[in-house]
């Protein structure tokens, strides 16, 4: 048996860099500026010095002895081992030659997130005024080591700090359950690119036209364990209070703030399905009845469960209350909405948190006062909250312009993938639709992009979400850090970004080796075989020969953390695959005594199945129709092919081969 896995990260970096013609991996200005190592985000400055620091001689991380530097050093040592396989000793005192030194210093100019990094022929020095700044310095160093491709680090130094305080991402976990295992990986990826905020949208609902216009049948979910209202929590996927609390603390330790969001009074069908009397009969049951005192009683108790106590479930300093897309058909309702918004902004603040909201005070103009001080707004559509008008009132905001920064997978509106080329060359966080703030305006704290899972049941997987997330995140991490015109052309940046890991220990795209390569092959695949590669991502080709035998339903060929590929699925006994709660079946079953060559091809659009070279199934996006054909939804049948460990099967599998991705995104 022979496996060609090419797992060594340095080998991958060199292979990709050679393929793209960008060796060495240095960012050189096309306007004649000085070279600097390629990182995302790009370092603001780089002062070139003579010589190189030999990476292979790194053996230890030395700290100044402070508790904060010690903690960051341990995190660096863990991540260095994950990326390069070398265990680094953490010590205190005088730094020896070949070491990395970490120091916390008093330097007000560096701020909360700034740092200094200096590479000399003898050692690497990292310093910052805070733990977060020092941790960001280690992210830069790890990326420099990755892009060095096993060669020495170029000597030089930088003083680096962000222009924008909030650099983030929002994920809709309400309409689609996102497992905690993925959220924890997501935080590691954000941290690796110095993205410091993750907003978790905890409740939402589908569109009723896809559910026979019946609010009782329309999908809705609230994703947190709830003791106050037993039965409110979504049964198809939720987070326990303990695990959500631990998740936020783990994220904070990596420099990422989690902003939990309970979205009210619209998008609130999960609550009105639980307690119908608080739903609006006039505007739809996804709207809460703002004139009903029971609405306030219900929500006050709900927020209290997660905000009260010495160790609240909502750990961080901010909590988002929603407040978007409520009807403004009547002025009376507008005034009720403003009263509601003010009440929950103040309620959140009463528990010691900064309240955040989507904001709709342009849409809901009225006389009822709404709290301004210490309120953060997500500025997504200027018709709901005009940013300059909100800033004039005293609000602080985050740029989230929907047309530029919203991903709605496979929906046919907004973006399926963000236009990263346009964003890289044209956008900065100070642009909020048709309103542009001056750089450094204190009203604008930063930006976030978002993934909305609007179309419940459309087949989109967590892997599909991640495939859309990564190119957007890498591009926006670059722009949110400094906002300035990039040094590199987009083409160069887009090639070089592939040379960086998603994060130490994270490979959700499941990419191994260089593009178009054979990453795994074996003459015979025996039941129970463990492979080095857990799964292979888009765009792949898996081919094998099968000598059929009778298989029992639920017979597995391969199973990974995210998917199962069946020789005989549990429902029909046909070959197929399952992931994210969806089961897809091919019109094929292993036949005793029959020998076939099977090929599965998978990309970000769908999955194709061949028998003896002839296409048998082509699972491309297809339309689902509801409401007498007026409502349509794209249905997706993708698969990141599971490997990892073979199942217990009777058929004989030979000539098993996995070919790797085509580098499209």
Please specify the SSE layout and strand pairing:
Layout: H1 9-20, E1 26-27, E2 36-37, E3 47-53, E4 60-63, H2 67-84, E5 89-92, E6 99-104, E7 115-119, E8 124-128, H3 131-147, E9 153-160, E10 166-172, H4 180-192, E11 197-201, E12 203-205, E13 220-222, H5 241-253, E14 257-264, H6 269-274, E15 279-280, E16 284-288, H7 293-307, E17 318-322, H8 331-350, E18 354-357, E19 376-379, H9 387-393, E20 396-399, H10 402-405, E21 406-407, H11 420-426, E22 431-432, E23 435-436, E24 444-451, H12 462-482, H13 490-496, E25 518-525, E26 535-536, E27 540-547, E28 555-559, E29 564-568, E30 576-579, E31 582-585, E32 595-602, E33 607-611, E34 614-619, E35 622-626, E36 631-635, E37 641-642, E38 645-646, E39 652-659
Parallel strand pairs: 4-5, 4-6, 6-8, 10-11, 10-24, 11-14, 14-17, 17-18, 18-19, 19-20, 20-24, 21-24
Antiparallel strand pairs: 1-2, 3-9, 7-8, 7-9, 12-13, 15-16, 22-23, 25-39, 26-37, 27-32, 27-39, 28-29, 29-30, 30-31, 32-33, 33-34, 35-36
Helix pairs in contact: 2-3, 4-5, 7-8
């Amino acid at each position: 048996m022979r496996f060609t896995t090419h797992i060594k990260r340095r080998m991958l970096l060199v292979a990709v860099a050679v393929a793209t013609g960008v060796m060495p991996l240095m960012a050189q200005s096309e306007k004649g500026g000085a070279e600097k190592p390629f990182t995302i985000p790009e370092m603001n400055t780089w002062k070139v010095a003579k010589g190189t620091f030999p990476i292979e001689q790194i053996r230890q991380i030395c700290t100044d002895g402070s508790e904060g530097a010690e903690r960051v050093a341990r995190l660096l040592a863990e991540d260095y081992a994950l990326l390069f396989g070398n265990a680094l000793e953490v010590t205190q005192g005088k730094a020896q030659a070949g070491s990395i030194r970490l120091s916390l210093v008093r330097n007000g100019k560096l701020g909360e997130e700034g740092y200094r990094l200096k590479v000399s022929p003898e050692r690497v020095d990292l310093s910052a005024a805070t733990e977060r700044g020092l941790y960001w310095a280690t992210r830069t160093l790890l990326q420099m080591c990755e892009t060095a491709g096993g060669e020495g680090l170029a000597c030089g130094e930088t003083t680096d700090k962000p222009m924008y305080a909030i650099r983030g991402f929002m994920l809709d976990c309400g309409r689609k359950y996102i497992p905690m295992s993925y959220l924890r990986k997501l935080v590691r990826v954000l941290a690796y690119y110095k993205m410091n905020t993750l907003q978790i949208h905890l409740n939402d609902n589908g569109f009723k036209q896809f559910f026979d216009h019946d609010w009782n049948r329309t999908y809705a979910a609230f994703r947190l364990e709830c003791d106050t209202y037993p039965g409110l929590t979504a049964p198809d996927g939720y987070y326990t209070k303990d695990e959500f609390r631990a998740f936020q603390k783990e994220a904070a330790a990596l420099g990422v703030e989690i902003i939990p969001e309970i979205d009210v009074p619209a998008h609130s069908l999960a609550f009105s399905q639980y307690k119908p009397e608080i739903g609006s009969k006039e505007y739809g049951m996804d709207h809460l009845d703002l004139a009903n005192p029971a609405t306030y009683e219900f929500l006050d108790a709900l927020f209290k469960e997660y905000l009260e106590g010495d160790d609240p479930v909502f750990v961080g300093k901010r909590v988002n209350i929603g407040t978007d897309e409520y009807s403004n058909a009547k002025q009376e309702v507008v005034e009720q909405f403003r009263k509601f918004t003010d009440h929950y902004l103040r309620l959140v603040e009463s528990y010691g948190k900064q309240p955040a909201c989507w904001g709709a005070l342009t849409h809901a103009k009225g006389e009822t006062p709404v709290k301004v001080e210490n309120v953060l707004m997500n500025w997504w559509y200027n018709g709901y909250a005009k940013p300059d008008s909100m800033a004039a009132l005293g609000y602080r905001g985050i740029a989230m312009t929907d047309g530029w920064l919203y991903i709605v997978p496979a929906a046919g509106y907004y973006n399926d993938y963000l236009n990263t080329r346009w964003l890289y060359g044209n956008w900065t966080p100070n642009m909020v639709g048709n309103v542009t703030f001056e750089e450094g305006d204190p009203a604008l704290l930063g930006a976030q992009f978002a993934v909305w899972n609007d179309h419940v049941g459309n087949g989109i997987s967590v892997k599909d979400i991640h495939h859309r997330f990564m190119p957007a995140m890498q591009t926006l991490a670059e722009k949110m850090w400094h906002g300035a015109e990039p040094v590199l052309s987009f083409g160069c940046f887009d090639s070089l970004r592939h040379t960086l890991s998603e994060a130490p220990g994270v490979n959700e795209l499941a990419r191994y080796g260089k593009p178009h390569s054979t990453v795994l092959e074996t003459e015979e695949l025996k039941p129970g075989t463990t492979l080095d590669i857990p799964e292979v991502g888009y765009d792949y080709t898996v081919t094998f020969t099968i000598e059929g035998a009778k298989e029992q339903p639920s017979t597995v060929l391969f199973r990974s953390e995210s998917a199962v590929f069946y020789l005989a699925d549990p429902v029909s006994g046909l070959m197929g695959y399952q992931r994210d709660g969806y089961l897809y079946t091919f019109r094929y079953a292993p036949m005793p005594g029959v020998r076939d060559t099977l090929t599965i091809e998978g990309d970000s659009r769908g999955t194709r199945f061949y028998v003896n070279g002839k296409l048998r199934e082509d699972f491309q996006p297809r339309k689902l129709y509801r409401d007498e054909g007026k409502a349509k939804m794209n249905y997706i049948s993708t698969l990141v092919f599971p490997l990892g460990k073979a199942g217990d099967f009777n058929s004989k599998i030979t000539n098993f081969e996995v070919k790797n991705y085509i580098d499209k995104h």
